[in-house]
Amino acid sequence: MGQGESKRERVVVGLSGGVDSSVTAVLLQQQGYEVIGLTLWLMKGKGQCCSEGLVDAAQLCETLGIEHQVVDTRERFQKYIVDYLVSGYEQGITPLPCSQCNRAVKFGPMVELARHDFKASKIATGHYARVHFDPHRGRYQLRRAIDRQKDQSYFLYDLTQDLLAATLFPLGEQTKAETRRIAAQYHLHTADKPESQDLCLIEAHGSMQSFLDQHIPAKPGEIVDLEGTVLGQHQGIHRYTIGQRKGLGIAAQKPLYVVALNVQENRVVVGDRDSITLTSCWVQRVNWVSVAPPQTPIQAEVQLRYRAQPVPATVVPLAADRAQLLFADPQAGVTPGQAAVWYQEDRVLGGGVLESG
Ligand SMILES: Nc1ncnc2c1ncn2[C@@H]1O[C@H](COP(=O)(O)OP(=O)(O)OP(=O)(O)O)[C@@H](O)[C@H]1O
């Protein structure tokens, strides 16, 4: 290093090839960081995080004059996401792979690579969420983004304190409209890329159904009511989700919902709305984020789906990383495999995976 030159702090930015991560790189460069672009190659084929994404990310780095690295993560993605999804659907649950993807496929490996290969202390992504250190609590706090429409904190509840300490979310403080404005201002070729609407896997395969059909063979069975009366046939329980109403193909006098997916008997069990309405449920693989695991029950607002309205509940911490949720009002949207994430105001306290039964 020459005299008078100061060593700039280095940050590794996860680049998917989309507008959000592009603007993240621009903002950090503007703030004086030495930015390295890192693209994880997740899947074969075309799509946002596949070949098209790699090329767009490479082009962005060329425009910004920064280093770009691509790391082949396909095996990890296969193990933690594809296999996890397939075995979940085979067992009659509806897994949400995004939180697991963030912790095990993206943030964990990115922080490792940043520290050991790139000698960088920080990583950054284009997620809409906020993180800051609270000296009173002695912990990093994960919070919702300023832009509530885009807020992605729901998908980040599984991050650890160590990962949060190493992470920057520059977009958490601004709206998506501002992000697009910055992309246009810097003439980024990613400025007009359409918003991703769904799971990256679904975008790559056209639909969840076609993804599952490629991985799970059809296995016809019966659709029955709670008394065991056969009402129809199905082509495989992996095609159904608990709580599902549409697409059952059964004519009935009142609306029917999927109540249970019985793997042993290969049966889809249906019932009326009351039979899917719960006053409590259990959560496993709980991660407490912004607070240490509490010893006594806490009051929180629980979100049972991405974009669902949070509902008031008591979270009862249990042994072995489990918790029980006691809803203030009965809830019909409890889908095993999806994430339940609990908040106090805009702070993510914790979350976990909804259990069946
Ligand atoms: N394949 C990847 N390699 C590295 N980082 C990634 C990859 N995919 C996603 N990320 C990081 O995670 C963030 C959120 O990803 P998500 O899939 O939710 O896309 P998004 O919100 O549409 O963002 P973008 O517009 O950057 O694609 C991205 O902004 C990026 O920083």
TrEMBL record:
Superkingdom to which the source organism belongs: Bacteria
Region (Interaction with tRNA): 150-152, 305-306
Protein name (Swiss-Prot/TrEMBL): tRNA-specific 2-thiouridylase MnmA
Native source species: Lyngbya confervoides BDU141951
Chain sites annotated for binding ATP: 14-21, 40, 126
Catalytic site: 101, 200
GO MF annotation list: ATP binding; tRNA binding; tRNA-uridine 2-sulfurtransferase activity
Annotated GO CC locations: cytoplasm
EC number assigned by the record: 2.8.1.13
One Pfam family in the UniProt entry: tRNA_Me_trans_M
High-level lineage: Bacteria, Bacillati, Cyanobacteriota, Cyanophyceae, Oscillatoriophycideae
Coiled-coil positions: none
Classification via InterPro entries: MnmA-like (IPR004506), MnmA-like_C (IPR046885), MnmA-like_central (IPR046884), MnmA-like_central_sf (IPR023382), Rossmann-like_a/b/a_fold (IPR014729)
Domain tRNA-specific 2-thiouridylase MnmA-like central span(s) in chain numbering: 209-272
GO biological process terms on file: tRNA modification
Protein location: Cytoplasm
